[in-house]
Amino acid sequence: MAANDPGQPALSSIDPSTFSTNHAVPTRALAVGAHPDDIEFGCGGTLAKWAAAGCVVHYAVLTDGSKGTWDVDADAVALVATRQAEQREAARRIGAAGSVTFLGAVDGELENTHALRDALSRLIRIVQPEVVLGHDPWRRYRLHPDHRAAGFLLTDSIVAARDPHFFRHHFDITDLQTGQPLAHHRPSTLLLWEADTPNHVEDVSATLDTKLHALEAHASQFESTMKATDKAALTAFRERMRARLGSLGSPHGFAAAEVFHLMGDL
Ligand SMILES: [Zn+2]
């Protein structure tokens, strides 16, 4: 697959022995993608592995996905509804037991705004994830503006969620689960997919098929993203994904892997 295929970075010459391996299964994780399908491409195998081990996986999708078609006559309203339904089904296939939140920014026009940082940092304070996963905003030579904006929106929202003097109106909200007011929350780890400089690897040998099954819930994207316009092309897509994740895993002794840039000490 090409270097800028969705979700996973180009193979690098970084010494595999410097990578950290297989983060401890968190109690709660939150994955934040720009579009429906980004999360499955970026970390679907890792989320499926953690969900099977008891992690409550939550999803947040920042844009409405309304430009995700090559059909110039497409009905954008219908496409948004279709893509939300596909995303919910993909999350179900991953085994995500948490929430699926759509923040509703216009596809292709995502910006790191005060209003979206307010919404995303509030979600982090509600979900209280130990691990957050998202797009690497520092990935070089990336064309799609939403992926870049999504990365910075997430890193800035982690800072806002963590520090008690950001968005103090959140503390007026009562958590429906606990009956307590929302509190500031500091995740322990951020995993960035499409990493410019990968330094962490997750073995997804056991959940590669689940990742593919979840990706295939995004049927509206078969033509534009997966180049899978018929059965043979869909088979070829699966083989490309297997080969790609296999080549990411082989330096680490895994049959299939997803790689990330891990940031701790948030
Ligand atoms: Zn995307």
List the helices and strands and how they pair.
Elements: E1 20-21, E2 28-33, H1 38-52, E3 56-63, H2 76-94, E4 100-105, H3 114-127, E5 131-135, H4 145-162, E6 189-193, E7 200-203, H5 208-215, H6 231-249, E8 257-263
Parallel strand pairs: 1-7, 2-3, 2-5, 3-4, 5-6
Antiparallel strand pairs: 6-8, 7-8
Helix pairs in contact: 1-2, 1-5, 2-5, 3-4
The structure holds zinc ion.
Give short descriptive properties of this protein:
eight-stranded mixed beta sheet; Rossmann fold; 266 residues; 6 helices; single chain; binds zinc ion; alpha/beta
What name is given to the CATH topology?
Rossmann fold
The profile of the biggest β sheet is: 8 strands, mixed
CATH class: Alpha Beta
Give me the side-by-side strand order of the main sheet.
1-7-8-6-5-2-3-4
Distance between the termini: 33 Å
What helical percentage do the residues reach? 25-40%
Q: What is the assembly state of the chains in this entry? A: single chain
Helix and strand content put the structural class at alpha/beta
Radius of gyration: 18 Å
Write the H/E string, N to C: EEHEHEHEHEEHHE
CATH superfamily: LmbE-like
* Count of the domains: 1
What is the helix tally?
6
The assigned CATH architecture is: 3-Layer(aba) Sandwich
Q: Average the pLDDT over all residues and give the rounded result.
A: 93
Overall morphology: globular
